[in-house]
Amino acid sequence: MSHPLRPFWAVSLSVFMLLSLPGCGGKETETTPPPQEQPKPMSREAKVDKLVSTVKKCSRLYTTEYKIHKIITHEDELKLKGSILGFDYDFDLPAGSRSIAIPIDATVKGYIDFGSFSDANVTFDGERVEITLPDPKVELTSTRVNHEEVQRYVALLRSDFSDAELTRYEKEGRASILQSVPSLKIAERSRQSASRLLLPLLRQLDLGDNITITFRKDFDERSLSTPTN
């Protein structure tokens, strides 16, 4: 059973100084700065290109992190199976059981990889701009077995758990943690975190205030990429 542990303000100051210099004849002459040419407004295509290049600079954006504690359990019995005189038998042998409980602490991180982000992720509808984010992904960044708290029981007729068996159980535990990821709602938290980071950047590109950040329409938590290594 998994137990998630529940888990710029920038100021620009401009100073304009009107310089007055004494001129000839004791009169004061006011210097007037030459008129500056107003920059031409950017085309929509140029804005999209700048948007894409700005977003791609984020590369891989980590949005969520979960600390998970899980106890991996295994239990088996030594059985006697066979057939005699046409009768099949299958029963547990006395003193033939063994069990083990392995505590694992894991860190799972959600992220968005902007390496494939392009103008195909940007849609204009009048004044409305919709940014479709790449699918969020998750990775198991670390696992640690607390060997001091491993509990085991080995009956008299059984051999102890081998290193190969322990390694297999730990691998199954890591896979089980990743299978529980959809219940953590990582996708929604990834979208919210990405929005908080990207919206201030996008508004600097003069795209207006009607900006929506979302995932593809058919995306849900089960679509999360969960590598098992």
Give me the number of helical elements.
3
User: From N to C, what is the helix and strand string?
Assistant: EEEHEEEEEEHHE
Instruction: Specify the helix fraction band.
Output: 10-25%
Which structural class matches the secondary elements?
Answer: alpha+beta
**What's the total number of strands?**
10
Mean pLDDT: 75
Largest sheet: 5 strands, antiparallel
* Rg from Cα: 32 Å
Low-pLDDT regions: 1-29
Q: What shape does the CA trace take?
A: elongated
Beta percentage is 35-45%
Distance between the termini: 20 Å
Please characterize this protein's 3D structure.
With 229 residues, this protein is α+β, with helices and mostly antiparallel strands. It is 21% helix and 38% strand. The protein is built from 3 helices and 10 strands. The chain has helices at 44-56, 163-179, 186-203, and strands spanning 3-4, 20-22, 28-30, 60-84, 87-113, 122-125, 128-132, 137-145, 151-154, 211-214. Strands 1, 4, 5, 8 and 9 form a 5-stranded antiparallel sheet that branches. The chain has a 3-stranded mixed sheet with strand order 6-7-10. A hairpin with a 2-residue loop joins β4 (60-84) and β5 (87-113). The two termini are 20 Å apart.
